Structure to design on (282 residues):
């Protein structure tokens, strides 16, 4: 089995800031990572710690897979690399977990009769087999619903528009408290400089005969379904094939630009980074 890449885009949420998503692909594997927006001062050189962890993770995962490692071994090795590099590059040791760069991830790696999906956080895969209804792999919609509810609740309590910005003092303390629970028991696990996460990844074996369509995406792109209700999963894949991903990205930004303060669609940012790969099983 191999993946044929049909289309791909990665759009920054704010053109003036670093795109904190990343993607990579090869014949038998593809990955999308979505860096969690920083909630403190950067610890690494460069514009964004979140962008660093996404790009580093994508590169190292493909490198280890290209070297012949199994998917599980490649993930463990990439996490070890990330932990080692973070320690070597950081200006100081973090005092709080919220200072550490983390990323959501969806990794698809070929296996007998299909592929194995590995994920953290709210990146996801949409899979369409022949005439069957499209299915979602991952927990993106559930996590996005909790985020939407949190944005609306915090905004109402603070008397602000939801998309006023996550770094406002009125939002920051609550967001930092939640981020401090990442990679702890009951707090959810993400890709980052923590090799323990290798044993906590979510995994599913997916049957995918030749011709199956696979869309790997960050939650910023999947908002077309989960937040804005513009498409269902089958409609999203049909539009990706007929109109192309660039057209869908344009549509996504038009919806967000028409609701800049997030009152119609509660969210912490007007626009999130949006990354998507459209693949076909060859």
């Amino acid at each position: 089995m191999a993946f044929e890449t049909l289309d791909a885009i990665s759009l920054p949420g704010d053109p003036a800031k670093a795109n904190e998503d990343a993607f990579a692909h090869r014949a038998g594997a593809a990955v999308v990572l979505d860096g969690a927006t920083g909630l403190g001062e950067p610890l690494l050189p460069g514009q964004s710690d979140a962008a660093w962890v996404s790009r580093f993770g994508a590169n190292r995962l493909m490198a280890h897979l290209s070297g012949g490692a199994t998917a599980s071994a490649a993930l463990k090795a990439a996490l070890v690399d990330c932990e080692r590099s973070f320690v070597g590059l950081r200006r100081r040791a973090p005092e709080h977990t919220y200072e550490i760069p983390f990323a959501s991830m969806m990794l698809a790696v070929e296996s007998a009769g299909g592929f194995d999906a590995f994920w953290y956080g709210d990146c996801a895969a949409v899979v369409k087999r022949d005439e069957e209804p499209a299915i979602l792999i991952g927990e993106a919609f559930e996590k996005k619903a909790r985020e939407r509810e949190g944005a609306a609740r915090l905004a109402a309590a603070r008397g602000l528009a939801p998309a006023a910005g996550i770094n406002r003092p009125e939002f920051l303390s609550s967001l930092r408290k939640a981020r401090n629970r990442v990679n702890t028991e009951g707090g959810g696990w993400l890709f980052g400089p923590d090799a323990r996460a290798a044993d906590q990844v979510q995994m599913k074996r997916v049957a995918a005969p030749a011709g199956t369509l696979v869309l790997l995406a960050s939650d910023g792109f999947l908002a077309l379904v989960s937040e804005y209700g513009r498409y269902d999963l089958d409609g999203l894949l049909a539009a990706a094939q007929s109109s192309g991903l660039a057209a869908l990205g344009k549509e996504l930004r038009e919806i967000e630009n028409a609701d800049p303060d997030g009152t119609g669609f509660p969210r912490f940012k007007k626009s999130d980074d949006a990354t998507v790969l459209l693949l076909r099983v060859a």
User: Anything to note?
Assistant: Helices lie at 49-66, 71-89, 140-158, 169-179, 219-226, 233-242, 245-257. The chain has one domain: 3-281. The chain has seven helices and ten strands.
